[in-house]
Design a protein that fits this description.
Number of strands: 20
Helix content: 25-40%
Largest sheet: 7 strands, mixed
Distance between the termini: 53 Å
CATH architecture of the largest domain: 3-Layer(bba) Sandwich
Oligomer: single chain
CATH topology of the largest domain: FAD/NAD(P)-binding domain
Length: about 525
């Protein structure tokens, strides 16, 4: 599906933002603006302007307000929270009070070493060190303010590569657990007038002096009204671009197939930061999530369901084949990291789970949250579910190479019969022989942004020559996931660094003439 790449397209959403916000219901408490807070918004000069009120923006505002700063948050959505509405809220930190209470010994250096190991030494050492050496204080701040994690936490990991120490934990309601704490802590500062919140408002321009220093912002609300605000500290925390298919293609060189991210992740920070003289780094570490079953081929498509691909949750009865009809992955491989890296190398980041009628009727259901009958019905109603009497007809229906799938199934059956699979698979409960035959198309999908705005060790946005743009800072996913994790998912290294960098900026990095 070809798209134009004009500026309007780059800042549009493929999911209705209004629909998304209305669907939130009562997931979070929601912030109220007191009469005092509204009155304080009459003036147009602030000690800090925060663009984006999510994981990083809310802590930055809270800690700046605690120091006496007057803060303006400009948020494009109708409510603060950002990706916390969709996030699992996983956090990781070494040396926390939670670990110490359980007699667990850990250190930031061990955390750092684990990140570099899991990222294959491709994460940014300076960014990772800043994150992990301050993560425990952030985690303790959250738990001191009431965050409750699962009783068995911390753990070493879940489906991705594990840590060497149990330092991975999250709240009972995922990202909403974190959001509720941030809402509780920020509300008194809003009530006092220290923090002013402008929702349903986007920043359309950074105001710069002749030397390039950022001195304020121009905003536009949903009614089209513009306004100008001044500050010697402007912080970009407006998230990534995972819901902007043109930016995904431009910055990562890949198609955004699945519309599964936060609809306001449109890359506004990239647009603003580069217009001010900054540059984007990363993007070569693109890695899709494995397991999405999409609604259709109108990319990026909403996700219909998830195929259960993690063997401890459900051992695989099927085989995975690419468009050539070839297996490319040992299906009972435990590592999600291996699975994702295998998928990214397949044509169109796509594969099919292929199985037969006996498997459909005897195996545990392979689609998350669906019953066996619901899966059977999908073969009559959903475009990513295929059924045919023969493998050749199944190939015609799916677009898989006919000779390839026939040879691959025959080879797998021989291995299953002899107890020795060509790819080393061990769980092989039965062959694929009893028609009709079935295929479910599995698609890689874009959850996060891998490229990001370049910053230095003080989180100042920098130019290509390494010099900092005065008064302009950035934090959160806007920095690019690959700075924190290289080309692999490291547990807790999105939410925790965002919270941590926001806290550091508000508490100590930013300077206020108060």
């Amino acid at each position: 599906m070809k798209r134009s790449k004009d500026s309007k397209t780059l800042l549009s959403s493929n999911v209705s933002k209004r629909t998304f916000i209305s669907a939130l219901g009562a997931t979070a408490v929601g912030l109220g603006l007191s009469p005092k807070a509204r009155a304080a918004d009459d003036a147009d000069t602030y000690d800090l302007i925060v663009i984006g009120g999510g994981n990083a923006g809310m802590p930055a505002s809270i800690f700046a307000a605690k120091r006496g700063a007057r803060v303006l948050i400009v948020e494009a959505a109708a409510q603060l929270g950002g990706t916390l509405f969709l996030s699992g809220g996983q956090m990781s930190a070494a040396g926390t009070k939670l670990q110490k209470a359980q007699g667990l010994k850990d250190s930031p250096e061990e955390h750092y070493n684990d990140i570099m190991r899991i990222s294959k030494n491709q994460a940014n050492p300076e960014i990772v060190r800043l994150a992990v050496y301050n993560a425990a204080d952030t985690f303790d701040w959250m738990t001191d303010n009431g965050l409750e994690v699962h009783p068995e936490h911390p753990v070493t990991g879940t489906t991705h590569e594990p840590y060497s120490r149990p330092r991975y934990a999250w709240g009972l309601e995922g990202g909403i657990s974190i959001l509720k704490i941030l809402e509780k802590v920020i509300q008194p500062h809003i009530d006092s007038g220290a923090i002013t919140v402008r929702t349903n408002t986007e920043v359309i321009e950074l105001i710069q002096a002749g030397n390039g220093a950022v001195t304020g912002v121009v905003t536009r609300n949903d009614d089209g009204k513009t306004a100008r605000y001044s500050s010697n500290n402007v912080l970009l925390t407006c998230g990534g671009y995972a819901s902007n298919p043109d930016m995904v293609e431009d910055l990562e060189g890949h198609t955004d197939y699945g519309d599964v991210s936060y609809p306001y992740s449109q890359g506004a920070g990239i647009t603003l930061g580069t217009a001010a003289g900054g540059y984007v780094r990363g993007g070569n570490h693109h890695l899709p999530s494995f397991g999405s079953i999409l609604q259709d081929d109108n990319f990026p498509s909403p996700r219909l369901a998830r195929f259960i691909s993690y063997p401890p949750h459900r051992p695989p009865w099927e085989i995975y084949v690419n468009v050539h009809g070839e297996r490319f992955l040992r299906e009972d491989m435990i590592s999600h990291d291996v699975r994702e890296h295998a998928l990214v190398n397949q044509p169109e980041e796509r594969c099919w789970a292929v199985f037969d009628d006996t498997t459909l009727n005897e195996a545990p259901p392979a689609v998350g949250g669906w019953t066996r009958d619901e899966i059977k019905d999908a073969f009559d109603s959903q475009p990513m579910f295929y059924r045919a009497d023969t493998l050749e007809d199944l190939a015609d229906a799916t677009g898989i190479d006919k000779n390839g799938i026939v040879k691959t199934v025959a080879r797998y059956n021989r291995g299953q019969n002899g107890g020795k699979d060509a790819l080393g698979r061990e769980f092989m409960p039965r062959p694929i022989t009893a028609g009709p035959f079935y295929a479910i198309r599995i698609q890689g999908s874009q959850l996060i942004s891998w490229a990001g705005l370049a910053v230095d060790g003080q989180l100042r946005v920098v130019r290509q020559d390494g010099t900092a743009i005065p008064n302009l800072y950035a934090a959160g996913e806007l920095l690019g996931t690959d700075q924190f994790m290289g080309d692999s998912y490291c547990g807790g290294m999105l939410v925790t660094p965002a919270l941590t960098f926001g806290r550091l900026l508000g508490d100590s990095i930013l300077s206020f003439d108060i």
